[in-house]
Amino acid sequence: MSPENSPTAELVRPPVGPADPPADPPADPPGAGRRPGPAAPAPDWRGRYGAWLVRVRLHRRARPAGTTAAGEPILVAGGVEIVLGADRCLYPLAGCAICGDRVASPSRPLRRPGDLLRPADPVICAACCARAAAHQADHRHRPR
User: Fold this and answer.
1) For residue 143, with 0-12 CB atoms within 10 Å meaning exposed, 13-18 middle and 19 or more buried, which class applies?
2) What span, in angstroms and rounded, lies between the C-alpha atoms of 41 and 3?
3) Which 3-state string (H, E, C) describes 45-108?
4) What secondary structure letter does DSSP report for 69?
5) DSSP string for 11-46
6) pLDDT for 21-41, tens place per residue?
C-alpha cells in the first residue's frame, strides 16, 4: 500500500492553507462598546456564585461588602452579612464571642428566606480555640 493511499495519510499530511497566521483584528478605540463611568474590577467567581445562590435560595439581591481576613467575599442581603462556605453553602457572619472577629457561623446555613430573620448563633473563632487549647495543655491536671 502506498503512503498516499493509507488510512493515516490524512493525519500526517500537512495542512493546506496560508503559511502565516491570520492577522489580529484592529483594536477598538479606548472606551468603545462600554458604558461611560469607572471600570469596576471583575468579581471573583465565588462572589458571583454566592450572589446567584442568594438570589435563588433566599430570593434577595445580594451586594458585595468586602472580603473576610481569609479573602472570601462577603455579601449583604436583607441586612445580613453572608459568606459562601467551602461546601458551597451560605453562612451568616457573626462576631467571635471572645475576640470579636467576624467569622462564619457554621452551625446554621442559610437555606430559605426565613433563615435571614433568625439571629446568628454564638461562635468562637479558630484562633481563640487554639489559644484555649494551648492554655489547657499548659495547665492540665497532673496526678501526684
Assistant:
1) exposed
2) 56
3) HHHHHHHHHHHHHHCCCCEEEEECCCCCEEEEECCEEEEECCCCCEEEEEEECCCCCEEECCCC
4) T
5) HHSPPPS-SSPPPPPPPPPTTTTS-SSPPPPPPPHH
6) 555 655 655 555 555 544 444
From the CB of residue 53, how many other CB atoms can be counted at a distance below 10 Å? 18
Q: What confidence tens digit (pLDDT) does each residue in 1-13 have?
A: 555 665 555 555 5
With 0.85 as the threshold, say if the pTM is over it.
no
90-101 average pLDDT score: 90
Owner of C-alpha cell 493546506: 16
Question: What CA–CA distance (Å, rounded) separates 67 from 47?
Answer: 10
Q: Which residue do the cell numbers 502565516 mark?
A: 20
DSSP codes, 121-133 = PPB--HHHHHHHH
Average pLDDT over residues 33-62: 71
